[in-house]
Specification:
The complex is a heterodimer of chains A (116) and B (135).
Chain A: E1 4-8, E2 23-28, E3 38-46, E4 51-55, E5 62-71, E6 74-77, E7 89-92, E8 96-100, E9 104-114
Antiparallel strand pairs in A: 1-2, 3-9, 4-8, 5-6, 5-9, 7-8
Chain B: E1 6-8, E2 22-25, E3 35-43, E4 47-55, E5 62-70, E6 81-82, E7 86-88, E8 92-94, E9 97-104, E10 108-115, E11 121-132
Antiparallel strand pairs in B: 1-2, 3-11, 4-10, 5-11, 6-9, 7-8, 9-10
The chains are: A mainly beta (116), B mainly beta (135).
């Protein structure tokens, strides 16, 4: 085996297992199983105008996740423009995470990981 | 210098200041999957807005994501997505099953589908509960 730093999940043998799903951390000299690295997270209330820019300051397009409080205490994963006709969505560019959905509370994560 | 544990990508320097050069760096949070599971459902024929729930037992509201696959198909599709069965330049894309959304409250993961087919459809779902909202 090449030099490696492996941290297996409970129940798996780091010395013999090769399934990346079975590791909390897997790094050797042959493959990069990258752990996404968080830059920022937080709540954001999108105003009646229906759009809110959140500056991420990274200078490139980062990987992001966004969720909306669809109803009280119920949180839904959001994507780009929704096929079900709902207006909750997000997009990201090299300056901002843009949340869309009038008068809705979002929870977002911005990661350092460059997706372009 | 602050003490860190860092693993650089192949070909990158471990003293790089670019977070994108790392597999792992102890200065940055890595996003956690706290629970994953599967659920098998049967969608009623020609029925929209079918909701299914799965208790998660976490005691908080997790962020969730999910993937679905009809048992009779090989392709996987995500929320806000259609199970594309046929496609072509003139045909466009067609599919009968739509995975409308995945969401969660403090008790359940909630899945919602449409089935436009005249027959019932068996679907397997793999879901992931991530860190909690507001954590």
């Amino acid at each position: 085996m090449a030099n490696a730093i492996l941290v297996a999940r409970p129940g798996y043998n780091a010395l013999t297992d090769t399934n990346p799903d079975h590791f909390a951390l897997y790094a050797d000299q042959a493959v990069d199983y990258i752990l996404i690295k968080e830059s920022a997270r937080g709540y954001a209330s999108v105003p009646a105008g229906g759009s809110l820019n959140i500056a991420h300051g990274l200078g490139y397009v980062p990987f992001c996740l966004a969720f909306v409080e669809a109803s009280a205490g119920v949180w839904r994963k959001v994507f780009s423009t929704a096929i079900d006709g709902s207006v909750w969505s997000f997009e990201v560019n090299d300056t901002n995470l843009v949340l869309k959905g009038a008068n809705k509370l979002f929870w977002y994560h911005i990661f350092y990981d460059n997706i372009t | 210098m602050t003490n860190v544990i860092a693993l650089a990508k192949i070909g990158k320097h471990v003293f790089s200041e670019d977070p994108n050069d790392y597999i792992f760096h102890s200065s940055y949070n890595t996003f956690k999957i706290v629970l994953e599971g599967t659920k098998s459902i049967t969608l009623a024929a020609a029925t929209a807005n079918q909701t299914f729930t799965q208790a998660h037992g976490l005691g908080f509201i997790p962020l969730v994501d999910a993937f679905a696959k009809r048992t009779a198909a090989s392709q996987v599709f995500k929320p806000n997505g259609i199970d594309v069965e046929l496609w072509g330049a003139k045909l466009g894309m067609t599919g009968d099953v739509t995975f409308n959304y995945v969401q969660a409250d403090d008790t359940n993961v909630i899945f919602n589908f449409d089935n436009d087919n005249a027959s019932a459809r068996d679907v397997n779902i793999r879901y992931f509960c991530l860190e909690g909202v507001g954590a």
